[in-house]
Amino acid sequence: MIANALGPVFLLILIGVILRRLDFPGAAFWPGIERLTYYLAFPALLIHRLALADFSEANFLPFFLVIGGSLCLVSALIWLLKKTLALNSADFTSVFQGGIRFNTYIGLAAASALFGDAGLVVAAIAVGIMIPLVNVLCILTFALANEEQRLSLPGLIKGLVTNPLIIGCLAGITLNLTAIGLPGWTAEVLARLGATALPLGLLAVGVALSLGTVKQDWLAILNSSLLKFLALPGAMLVLSALFGLDAMSRQVLLLLACLPTASSAYILARQLGGNAPMMANIISAQSLLAFAVMPLWLSLGMSWFG
Q1: Is 243 exposed, middle or buried (0-12, 13-18, 19+ CB in 10 A)?
Q2: Contacts for 80-84: CB closer than 8 Å, 24+ residues apart
Q3: CA angle 198–258–121, rounded 5-degree value
Q4: What pLDDT, in 10s, does the model give residues 131-150?
Q5: Which residue, 61, 69, 132, 213, has fewest beta-carbon neighbours within 10 Å?
Q6: How many domains does the chain have?
């Protein structure tokens, strides 16, 4: 089941890799596709799924506690190991991002493939919690690790409230809870727009992969991957069982926890004085490692949760 569901996800990424190698339809094409997907298609998908979801029996507090607890525990662990993980502050911020950031494109596509519409709704709610929390943790890490980097509170708040994925989640939940829903043609329009998000997002992931200089940062890749693929899923697995989440919610959270690092980590590293080349290598290596890691964790979760 897991292999059959994740197979098409990884094949779409592989097609993106092939398109990059063929330089088709050209390097200038993909940045526009990424922006279209990020600012329009993915928010449309989130609004559509969340606005029409059934929240009548939803209990968000344990959900929030599991996600927040897992991310904060792993973040604290990374800071405790700071001197072991990196030689300087710029390297440390890249390892930190590699340990807690996640690729939304792969996560939503995999949740949809594995658990259908119900799983996609759970994943969308989780993403709405994880994105702001992860961004706050990463930006605070840049501020604390690099004393020369000064970050203003207004700048942090602006970055969060203008994030299109957060806006999409909040808009969808608001439309749902106010009973406005999606009147008229809006449901169909958003459904058609959202249908393009997952395939285009996965192709963009493949196009962005670059393994040319991965060897030079093997230690940082190893450290960040141990945190990302062992510590974070392990924390999510234990806490989701401790707080009594239902089986599908546990599996969706476990899936999101063992995703590779997002390409947005590279942008943040460039903007805030991190080691951007190292960050790019961590992203590329983890995207490949996820092919093996995700099925293993999901199989473990299935056996544990029954």
Answers
A1: middle
A2: 82/145
A3: 45
A4: 888 988 988 888 888 765 55
A5: 61
A6: 1
